[in-house]
Amino acid sequence: MIRLLVVDDDPMVRTGLRLILGGEPDLEIAGEAGDGREAMAAIRELRPDVVLLDIRMPVQDGLVTTELLAGRPDRPRILVLTTFDADDMVLRALRLGADGFLLKDTPPPRMVEAVRAVAAGEPVLSPRVARQVIAAATDGHGRRRPEAERELARLTERERQVAIEVARGSSNAEVAARLHLSVATVKANITRIFAKLETDNRVHVAMKVRDAGLL
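Above: the chain's sequence. Below: its structure in token form.
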């Protein structure tokens, strides 16, 4: 059972998330909070596995909360929720250690899948958020194209195909469906990609793919 804490200053958003996620057999809404300060207290008391964290809140926003949680060895996974697909706060949250980003209008099935993925240690980016993050983080990427091409040359053809799908914001299940692979094979390919690119971050892979001109 994956225990969730829903953190958003809008009660209607919290109710919607409870309805979307609470009906799944493997997901349990452990509690709710209306701001980051309430969330910190709830995390200490409830010890959730995943926190769905609004990025814009009064009293204490999602950035401060992410930063406070990031250094804790036993911290929950942090899935940031945002209304803005071009929000620079998303980039800041990434740097602070958030495990995933979803737009609040993400279709329910993908939201459920994202929660499960983050709980399993798989970073998640909504495709639209992924495009904005990569575009902002790789401003001037043409200057880095030769280096990116050299790094991606270490990958096999199959690994390159998987890396391109990762750069498009696809989940492991979506990569598996598009490339006609099992999810286990996709995970194995991603593990090898991380090792060859010396990273543990899907966004870093996506940046290299973009820099190399493969999107």
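The two ends are 37 Å apart (CA to CA).
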